[in-house]
Amino acid sequence: MELYIDTANLDEIKEAHDLGILDGVTTNPSLIAKEGVPYTDRLAEICQIVTGPVSMEVLAVEADAMIAEGKICMEVAPNIVVKLPSTIDGIKACKALADEGIKTNMTLCFQAMQAMLVAKAGAYLVSPFIGRLDDISQDGTELISQIRTIYDNYSFETKILAASIRHPKHMLECALIGADVATVPLQVIKQLAKHPLTDSGIERFLADYAGAFGK
Ligand code: E4P
Q: Partner of 26 for a Cys bridge, out of 55, 106, 206, 213, CB 3.0 to 4.6 A?
């Protein structure tokens, strides 16, 4: 399973990158707004740290404008993946960009048929938002499961990028279902390596050793 970090904050990206297991980054306009830095400037900085796929979202909502903006995004760095909404216009733009060899991440996917259409359009990634579905009392991980089945049924190559992940249980469920990628906030990445018995186990080992041999 590939691990991306979901942030536009450089300190968080550096911290995750230093772990040595970070495969990519996702950003969105809300995350950039929190940073208060122009989108292209921040994405250029991110691409100097991370060489894997870095998703940059277009602000356009109409297909031709999305295609034009997607091409401008690609001028930032060669590892940019153009992030487009999973709408009819997004699907058209996805197909046009994919035909030119440009990778896309189809975002704001909330139902399995959106995922099927973007796969047919040649998307590199599809981003089902599981946390936001849970927020409205729907089952986010069930959507991941449905998309996995459909993609396997028809051998679609689009990667499932589980997004809007809120806690380690989301990650576990996505890994068991077989999501290809998860994009996760730094806080949750840290929680993945946390267990109280690990901490108390370390303390006991060190105390026992110190009791026998001194520090
Ligand atoms: C994914 O690419 C999105 O940036 C992200 O996962 C959205 O998550 P949120 O629902 O926590 O805003």
A: 55
